[in-house]
Specification:
Distance between the termini: 61 Å
Strand content: 5-15%
Number of domains: 3
Strand order of the largest sheet: 3-2-1-4-5
Helix content: 40-55%
Largest sheet: 5 strands, mixed
Shape: globular
Radius of gyration: 29 Å
Structural class: alpha/beta
Oligomer: single chain
Length: 459
């Protein structure tokens, strides 16, 4: 036994958890009512109240907490029921701690809402709860619109799949005739079919002049059985696609409007600097994302699309999810861990354990960064070379995960410190990697007692 351990044995045992801040509350969130535990009373009596979920009831809850001098309140992130209470508490100057249910759901004996809110209040007063990251209110407003925009895009994708299913059931292979059914030629052919055209050669006249296939080759894929039920399904799916497209355009306009409102005055009229990669800049303009790129640059002061694999849409998802203030993350490692892009080492007592996914982080950013990593597979850049080196040594899944982690690191440095990203190129990266590898081998040989003499005559 060490001297320190012997000294600790002579001390008095800890009788109770020390209270750091007594002026806190715990709230058990529900769909019909919220149970609120206020600061502990002087006589130790129960200080729990039940409030409804209507706006007047929430206002009574806030007034009750303010009367008791509550400075901070902790609540579980239950579905979306916590949002009205959170926003109202924050509006009245009460610091709110949004807690992941995993931190407090494994305690035995908490079978009622009354006990649950008291347990939350106790843990919060002892400083044992960790709040979830939530950007400021202005960014949250943009984020809500952006998330609904993403939902609509997924619904539009379903409409496209339904169109393709109807065409396949009629044996009309539009997706074989053209590379993309939602392209100019593909949609023109689908609209002509819905309008009543059945002649494959007249349908092929909708071919764009840039198509590589000839009209005869396209017409061969446009002969079908034209059953009425499939045609009706195709028409309804096309109508749904058009309707969703109109709504998505409105959402995109609203997003740009919200981003412009948040832009600092000194950058409102400035133009985004020229992209270092002319090919990528041309592709951004071709997709119609240049306006979004400029809006994001004016908002943040950095151009995330300079990072290879990051397009305007990915940059918008990142910024609307985390905002502009990254001070909540002390280092890039904390940011990467929050994104769930840090390797998990499931080892306890020297033995591996079955790993479980950590649900306390952001998945939306991690998912888009993985997709961005996959797009670097054939990129002639340093990040592309990094991806290919890992995929050769280990596996494609490992390469995607590691490259997504590197993209997150670059994004953090740009947003937090204003560092600019400059691609060193594929050849320079490979050369630097070989130099690091050679230095490692040399140090290993020297550590084993060998003398390393370079062979200058080697080819």
């Amino acid at each position: 036994m060490s001297k320190r351990q012997k000294k600790d044995l002579k001390k008095k045992s800890i009788q109770a958890l020390p209270v750091i801040n007594p002026k806190v509350a715990g709230i058990d969130i529900g769909s019909r009512s919220h149970y609120v535990a206020g600061p502990v009373l002087d006589d130790g009596g129960l200080n729990v109240r039940e409030f409804g979920t209507t706006t007047p009831q929430l206002q009574k809850m806030v007034d009750w907490l303010l009367d008791q001098g509550v400075e901070s309140a902790a609540m579980e992130s239950t579905s979306v029921y916590w949002i009205p209470a959170y926003e109202l508490l924050e509006h009245h100057g009460i610091k709110v701690l949004l807690v992941n249910a995993r931190q407090i759901s494994k305690v035995p004996g908490r079978k009622t809402d009354v006990l649950d809110c008291q347990w939350i209040q106790l843990l919060h007063s002892c400083g044992l709860l960790r709040g979830s990251f939530r950007p400021d209110e202005a960014i949250c407003a943009v984020r809500a619109i952006k998330r609904q925009w993403s939902n609509l895009v997924r619904e539009r994708t379903k409409a496209v799949q339904w169109m393709q299913k109807s065409l396949d059931q009629m044996n009309v292979k539009v997706h074989h005739a053209v590379s993309e059914i939602t392209g100019k030629t593909g949609m023109s052919i689908v609209r002509a079919i819905v309008s009543g055209e059945r002649d494959p050669y007249k349908l092929a006249e909708n071919r764009d002049k840039r198509c590589k296939k000839s009209p005869d080759e396209i017409a061969e894929h446009l002969v079908g059985n034209w059953r009425s039920d499939h045609l009706f399904n195709l028409e309804m799916a096309l109508n749904l696609y058009d309707h969703l497209q109109e709504i998505i355009v409105s959402y995109e306009s609203k997003l740009l409007e919200k981003l412009e409102e948040l832009q600092p005055p000194e950058r409102k009229n400035e133009s985004v600097p020229t992209h270092p990669n002319p090919i990528k800049e041309k592709a951004i303009k071709g997709r119609g994302d240049q306006e979004l790129r400029e809006a994001l640059w004016r908002l943040t002061g950095v151009d995330l699309t300079r990072i290879d694999g990051i397009n305007s849409e990915t940059a918008m998802i990142v910024i609307t999810e985390i905002g502009l203030d990254l001070s909540a993350f002390p280092s890039e490692k904390d940011f990467i861990s929050w994104l769930r892009l840090a390797p998990r080492y499931g080892i306890t007592g020297g033995k591996p354990i079955k790993g479980k996914k950590n649900a306390m982080g952001s998945t939306r950013i991690a998912n888009v960064l993985r997709m961005s990593s996959l797009s670097l597979k054939n990129s002639k850049t340093a990040l592309g070379a990094y991806y290919r080196r890992l995929s050769r040594r280990k596996d494609a899944s490992v390469a995607i995960f590691a490259t997504a982690r590197k993209l997150a690191t670059l994004i953090f440095r740009m947003l937090r410190y204003g560092q600019d990203y400059v691609d060193i190129g594929e050849q320079t990266y490979e050369k630097q990697f070989e130099q690091r590898r050679l230095a490692g081998l040399k140090n290993s040989l020297i550590a084993m007692g060998y003398t390393v003499i370079p062979n200058n005559n080697a080819v």
